[in-house]
Specification:
about 375 residues, 2 domains, 8 helices, Purple Acid Phosphatase, chain A, domain 2
């Protein structure tokens, strides 16, 4: 039996101001729709016995009608071929209050589509396959529900959950609304465990894998491949299949502490002209910029160097010793540093915090560019 494992498709996600010329929609929103459609195309080529989506189908609890309609159209392309799809709710799809209701109820009555969203363990049987599914819920509840995963003898058993695993370094600083579980709760006797929440393809235990996301959501994912996993359950074979995704380029940082205006201009030129930027999302960090040097930066010229990029984010970390504002005995740093420090004090999920941080830095960069 062959299954496909995908996760974190985040349909409805949008960022930056670029508009898709063909549709008039936000370009990043279209990127995620296009990635999902490419995934569906590949599923129809593979013709698996089942598709498992391990959370965050949508980017928000209340996706737009456009995102819902698109998701339904694409999922039906699979289910109408007789391929069952099991999809669990992730933290982005789970409302804080039950009274809010779940968008997954829309999926509840479609043939061959099995949404799991009621914050409790559910068992779904498809032929010889038994899917043990646990959607996103709070950490204590998650641990309790995972103990209900008991393999059915003589059948192929696959687990599904949307959570962090404590053995991974990235989850050792657990944040609000992020359930973290011990790898000891992942049943070793299962044929496969489909994990969601971590956006990079990763093996956690002998039988447990994150498929990662199908598009890049932050610069921490710039170098990572995006795609899905094909699993042959009888042969215990797992193959990652890559999907095309929007390029993200996080350029090497420039240290400007000992540079003059001419030297900084040469460094900026070399950095941006040394990369193929066409259609990419690009970030360039310039560290320790003396305030007088920062005031001399020609942001119009700088942005012209990256004109072929879909989005360009120049980030200057300005030294402000001569223009400091005292607060609690310490100097206020650059706007960028202050924004990041301010945001760290708030309890948000990892994905939410990354996106809010990047959006704020984008606005700061635009403001700095206009004032510069």
């Amino acid at each position: 039996m062959k299954i496909v494992h995908v996760s974190d498709t985040h349909l409805g996600y949008s960022a930056y101001s670029k508009v898709d010329e063909g549709t008039g929609l936000n370009q990043r929103e279209m990127d995620f729709y296009n990635a999902f459609e490419r995934f569906i195309d590949r599923v129809l080529e593979v013709r698996p016995d089942a598709v498992l989506h391990s959370g965050d189908l949508f980017d928000t609890v209340r996706p737009t009608n456009r995102a819902i309609s698109f998701a339904l159209e694409q999922l039906i392309r699979i289910t109408e071929k007789g391929i069952p799809v099991v999809v669990i709710a992730g933290n982005h799809s789970t409302p804080k209050l039950r009274e809010t209701g779940s968008v997954f109820k829309i999926l509840d009555h479609l043939d061959n589509l099995y949404p799991v969203f009621k914050e409790q363990y559910e068992r779904i049987e498809v032929g010889d396959l038994v899917v043990h599914a646990v959607p996103h819920c709070d950490q204590e509840k998650m641990a309790q529900e995972l103990t209900r995963m008991e393999p059915v003898r003589g059948r192929l058993n696959v687990g599904m959950l949307h959570a962090g695993v404590s053995s991974l370094q990235v989850f050792r600083m657990g944040e609000f609304n992020e359930s973290i579980v011990s790898s000891s709760l992942l049943p070793a006797e299962f044929d496969y465990i489909a994990l969601g929440h971590y956006h990079n393809f990763c093996q956690v235990t002998d039988n447990a894998y994150y498929s990662g996301s199908i598009e890049r959501l932050s610069f921490s994912e710039a170098a990572e491949r995006k795609g899905f996993v094909i699993v042959d359950l009888e042969r215990r074979r797992r193959e990652f299949r890559e999907l095309e995704a929007r390029r993200m380029i996080d350029l090497p940082a420039i240290d400007a502490r000992h540079l003059d205006a001419g030297a900084l201009k040469r460094e900026l030129t070399a950095s941006l002209e040394g990369e193929r930027l066409e259609g990419a999302i690009v970030r360039l960090v310039v560290k320790d910029v003396p305030y007088p040097l920062y005031r001399d930066v020609d942001f119009h010229w700088l942005r012209s160097l990256a004109a072929e990029a879909m989005h360009f984010e120049p980030r200057f970390e300005v030294l402000q010793e001569n223009h400091a504002v005292q607060s609690g005995g310490g100097a206020i740093g650059s706007l960028e540093k202050e924004w990041v420090s301010y945001l760290e004090a708030y309890a948000l999920s990892r994905g939410d915090k990354d996106r809010i941080k990047d959006r704020g830095l984008e606005y700061i960069a635009k403001g700095v560019g206009e004032s510069g």
